[in-house]
Amino acid sequence: GPVPGFNAVIASSVPLGGLSSSASLEVATYTFLQQLCADDGDAVQKALTCQKSEHTFAGVPCGIMDQFISVMGREGHALLIDCRSLEVTPLPLADPGMAILITNSNVCHELTGSEYPERRRQCEEAAKVLGKDTLRDVSFEDLEAMKERLSDTCYKRARHVITEIARTTYAAEALQRGDYKEFGRLMVKSHNSLRDDYEVSCPELDELVAIAIEVPGVYGSRMTGGGFGGCTVTLLETSAAERAKQHIQSRYRGSPTFYLTKAS
């Protein structure tokens, strides 16, 4: 039935900048509306509806990852998401000896509004030149064989996406076997690809990652979110958390904010 009128106040502890703050607001609002007007409780449809709201209201052609983790996240787990089949696989990340350190760079370069759609357009252009509907259907060997047909920019964007898909698969396997060292190595490689091929990082994020991985007990670090500012996420031993915060505080040229957390 129709949603009745209501008054609502929004309060949030989710920092802006790469931590799915827009998706969390969408999902929280949807959850609130479910209390007023119950639906069938389909979690996938809930996430897709929240994604649609970001496309149509905010005008951001975002993917599905943020909404899916906000709806279907499970305490003590990461979530492997297949964006084609919409299947999700929880992956264990509940080792009490491990923690996740979120570091907010507290900078925001005013590029994110236009750059995300542009990256998406470049990837779609690359897939079209390569004769595929999406870059998921392109192997790295295919990309290299047809490199000369792509502009340098589209080649780099495609190389990021294709190698990131592979890294995601390897990272999921590493988590399944509890290999945090390998998972952390893949985090750093992912950041480097976002910096060099996708070109959505910034000096502050690069600095935070480089400083974090100097600390003993840190397995890996990378930027998170749309880039050009915002946060980094660092996987580290719980015992190394205070040491990492102090090291970053002393070396980072900006004013960071820290959030020590667990997978949820």
UniProtKB/TrEMBL annotation:
One of its GO terms (cellular component) is cytosol. Residues 171-253 form the GHMP kinase C-terminal domain. This is Putative galactokinase 1. The keyword S-adenosyl-L-methionine does not apply. GO terms for biological process: galactose metabolic process. NCBIfam families: gal_kin. Residues 4-74 form the GHMP kinase N-terminal domain. It comes from Hymenochirus curtipes (western dwarf clawed frog). It comes from the Eukaryota. Belongs to the GHMP kinase family. GalK subfamily. InterPro entries: Galactokinase (IPR000705), GHMP_kinase_C_dom (IPR013750), GHMP_kinase_C_sf (IPR036554), GHMP_kinase_N_dom (IPR006204), GHMP_knse_ATP-bd_CS (IPR006203), Mevalonate/galactokinase (IPR006206), Ribosomal_Su5_D2-typ_SF (IPR020568), Ribsml_uS5_D2-typ_fold_subgr (IPR014721). GO terms for molecular function: ATP binding; galactokinase activity. Pfam families: GHMP_kinases_C, GHMP_kinases_N. Keywords: ATP-binding, Kinase, Nucleotide-binding, Transferase.
